């Protein structure tokens, strides 16, 4: 029995055919990590490669604001995180567990550290190029998760400190495609401040990563009924 729902590939072709991407200006970025995290949902990461353009809509992001015990900047500046002290819209890239690069967007005014981890993208352009980078044809495996998306878009430590609002190769854009409802839940894979609800995602998007149980709307507790005597 065939499904009535379109495949992710068919849905992408239908909703994003002939897209036009407008560059996001720095003046549009909220100078607050949590606000910028919400703002980034639906925006587009574009990377102009020699093999062609690859891009994807941001559908999941985690905020790491100033003073956050789970953030790399919690203990103060080090040479490794110097890019986190740049103006909002710059890139901070780190190598996670010796396996994956992670793309972050700097989120606070200069000299105040804060960043947003881009956890998942919905592929838009250059899907065949991404498939070669990821060595898979499974659309859902291309950019669902921060390590996967960095590999698909060929982002590494060379891009640390890049200005997404000014760079000609790696930049932040916007398309005329409204985002779905934005959900909020706890962050993934951390031990400190693990209860903070600082992970934002587009509800219902199949490219959002992580356990599905975290994506469900919180149920309201029922008020206990008073028994009549």
Report on this structure.
- With 229 residues, the protein is of the alpha+beta class.
- It has a single domain (8-204), classed as 3-methyladenine DNA Glycosylase, Chain A.
- It is 14% helix and 25% strand.
- It has 4 helices and 9 strands; from the N terminus they run H-E-H-E-E-E-E-E-H-H-E-E-E.
- It has helices spanning 8-15, 33-40, 127-134, 146-152; strands at residues 22-23, 44-49, 52-64, 91-96, 100-106, 115-125, 170-174, 182-185, 199-202.
- Strands 1, 2, 3, 4, 5, 6, 7, 8 and 9 form a 9-stranded antiparallel β-sheet that branches.
- Strand 5 and strand 6 (115-125) form a beta hairpin.
- The model is unreliable at 1-7 (pLDDT under 50).
What count of helical segments does DSSP give?
4
Largest sheet: 9 strands, antiparallel
Radius of gyration: 19 Å
> How many DSSP-defined strands?
9
CATH class: Alpha Beta
Number of domains: 1
**Helicity, in percent?**
10-25%
Instruction: Report the structural category.
Output: alpha+beta
Describe the oligomeric state of these chains in a short phrase.
Answer: single chain
The coarse overall form would be globular
H-E string: HEHEEEEEHHEEE
Average pLDDT metric: 89
What's the CATH H-level homologous superfamily? Methylpurine-DNA glycosylase (MPG)
């Amino acid at each position: 029995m065939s499904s009535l729902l379109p495949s992710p590939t068919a849905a992408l072709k239908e909703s994003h055919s002939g897209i036009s991407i407008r560059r996001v200006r720095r003046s549009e970025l909220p100078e607050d990590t949590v606000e910028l995290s919400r703002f980034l949902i639906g925006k587009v990461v574009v990377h102009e490669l020699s093999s062609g353009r690859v891009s994807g809509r941001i559908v999941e992001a985690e905020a790491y604001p100033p003073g956050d015990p789970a953030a790399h900047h919690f203990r103060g500046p080090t040479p490794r995180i110097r890019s986190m002290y740049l103006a909002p819209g710059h890139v901070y890239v780190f190598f996670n567990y010796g396996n994956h690069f992670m793309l972050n967007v700097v989120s606070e005014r200069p000299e105040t550290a804060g960043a947003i981890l881009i956890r998942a993208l919905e592929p838009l352009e250059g899907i065949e190029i991404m498939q070669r980078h990821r060595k898979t044809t499974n659309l859902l495996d291309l950019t669902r998760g921060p390590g996967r998306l960095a590999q698909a878009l060929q982002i590494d430590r060379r891009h640390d400190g890049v200005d997404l609002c000014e760079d000609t190769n790696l930049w932040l854009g916007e398309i005329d495609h409204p985002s779905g409802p934005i959900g909020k839940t706890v962050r993934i894979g951390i031990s400190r401040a693990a209860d903070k609800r600082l992970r934002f995602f587009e509800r219902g998007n199949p490219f959002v990563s992580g356990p599905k149980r975290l994506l469900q709307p919180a149920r309201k507790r029922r008020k206990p009924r008073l028994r009549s005597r």
